[in-house]
């Protein structure tokens, strides 16, 4: 019998320029571009491109950049111009300033780099992706001649425009499969073979970098007759980090809240919210359910902090340290369902943390599952003011009531 250590991971998120560089390195056609971290560098990059038109893009991880607003007063994180000097003026209002979009926190995210790229006209936009699909135990190509838009909407309104093709993981992508997908995407004449070649290169990239998804939207053609990957989102298999050290070294954690980075050091997943009841759980689904039930009972969650599966006593201690350091937190609700998690380890961690950190906020604990009776004994004999709960509903009511009493 072998025990398995489960280590929760944060998803790796790359900036647009990083994804484009990985693609270019694997022979995929992208726009020519440079990256700049000062207005002067942006001007030099624009001059070096010698392009008819230039697109300047602020580099942050959040979507909706085009409609975003900078705290410098500049509107839009994406700008087109034919004049390199305009690139310099725009970059001055981007670099070092916060960009707020519908996906960023209220105050926005500081832009440290901009991408200066050759702007290409798109005569036609299509959608192409390769993803790992559990249903067929391997990679699947998904394509649509309707690109540049929300693909989920296309799937609902025009399902006949979504084409899927399974790829045999052992044999790889066949020439006729790539060509058929190019036809389904509506590429014609010489562009058909060019699109098929790009599809094969994207599949090779998908395999080589241990991706779980490579999504290109739009996968477009230019009036000059070139097939180009204009925008791409790449998801990676976190379990392959040991093979993909260079790629994982690109992870820019500077956009995270400092508390998120601190939590990640101990393999904890932390997401800050704006309430006052801290949620300490194991598993993302349980975290969301806990947040919901607190809200249903009239409370507001302050965060969710997910322990994951492979729990150690030290993690519980660090989790409490993070939660008690947050001035917003007026009560802590621990909701653990022990399957692979041993409840006694959680109980020992809780008592140690409470004693050493001199916990000053009410603590409600609901434990269920493996070794729960031993865990309840540890908590009850600790002499600490811990409120036990029989189930999730009871726990939420007690946590909300403890804040109301204050």
Descriptive labels:
single chain, 406 residues, alpha+beta, Dna Ligase, domain 1, D-amino Acid Aminotransferase, Chain A, domain 1, Rossmann fold, 3 domains, 6-stranded antiparallel beta sheet, disordered N terminus
The profile of the biggest β sheet is: 6 strands, antiparallel
Supply Rg.
25 Å
Structural classification:
alpha+beta
The unreliable regions are 1-10
Distance between the ends: 50 Å
**CATH homologous superfamily assignment of the largest domain:** Succinyl-CoA synthetase domains
| Integer tally of domains | 3
Q: Count the DSSP helices.
A: 13
The helix fraction, in percent, is: 25-40%
Q: What does the oligomeric state look like here?
A: single chain
Instruction: Return the CATH topology of the largest domain.
Output: Rossmann fold
Domain ATP-citrate synthase/succinyl-CoA ligase C-terminal: 281-400
Pathway: Carbohydrate metabolism; tricarboxylic acid cycle; succinate from succinyl-CoA (ligase route): step 1/1
Domain ATP-grasp fold succinyl-CoA synthetase-type: 13-219
GO biological process, one term: succinyl-CoA metabolic process
Description:
This protein folds into three domains: 32-118, Dna Ligase, domain 1 (2-Layer Sandwich), CATH 3.30.1490; 124-249, D-amino Acid Aminotransferase, Chain A, domain 1, CATH 3.30.470.20; 258-402, Succinyl-CoA synthetase domains (Rossmann fold, 3-Layer(aba) Sandwich), CATH 3.40.50.261. The protein is built from 13 helices and 19 strands. The chain has helices spanning 16-25, 39-49, 84-92, 151-157, 175-184, 190-208, 245-248, 258-265, 284-296, 313-324, 343-357, 372-380, 392-405, and strands spanning 33-36, 54-58, 69-70, 78-81, 98-100, 109-110, 114-118, 124-133, 138-144, 163-166, 211-221, 227-229, 232-236, 269-272, 277-281, 301-306, 331-338, 363-369, 386-388. α2 packs antiparallel against α3, α5 packs across α6 and α11 packs parallel to α12. The radius of gyration is 25 Å and the shape is globular. Heterodimer of an alpha and a beta subunit. The beta subunit determines specificity for GTP. One of its GO terms (biological process) is tricarboxylic acid cycle. Pathway: Carbohydrate metabolism; tricarboxylic acid cycle; succinate from succinyl-CoA (ligase route): step 1/1.
